């Protein structure tokens, strides 16, 4: 009779250990993703700052003729911010998909 009571308790203890182990793994993966996310945010801020600095150095007004005849006009092509953000979102989705795959495979 005591053995019948102990069996479910031992089973629950093993399940608890498995859940704790999985929780630690997920927490570790989450921390890793948070660090990567933070690094990417820092990189985005740095690139945005560089873009602003470059744009402030280049004063382009294509409606104004060059000040002297024969002065070359330069056109600088800057990728659209929306395309940049879209690419970041897709990378983020890919990373989260990889994370989900790793969790479901373990």
TrEMBL record:
Descriptive protein name: Uncharacterized protein
Keyword Coiled coil recorded: yes
PANTHER family associated with the record: TRANSCRIPTION FACTOR BHLH47
Keywords, sorted A to Z: Coiled coil
Coiled-coil residues: 30-57
């Amino acid at each position: 009779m005591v053995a019948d009571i102990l069996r479910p308790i031992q089973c629950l203890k093993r399940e608890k250990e498995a859940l704790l182990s999985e929780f630690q793994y997920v927490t570790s993966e989450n921390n890793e993703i948070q660090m990567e996310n933070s690094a990417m945010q820092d990189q985005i801020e740095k690139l945005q700052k560089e873009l602003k600095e470059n744009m402030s150095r280049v004063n382009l007004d294509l409606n104004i003729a060059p000040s002297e005849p024969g002065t070359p006009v330069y056109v600088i092509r800057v990728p659209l911010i929306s395309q940049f953000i879209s690419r970041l979102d897709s990378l983020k989705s890919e990373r989260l998909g990889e994370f989900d795959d790793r969790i479901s495979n373990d």
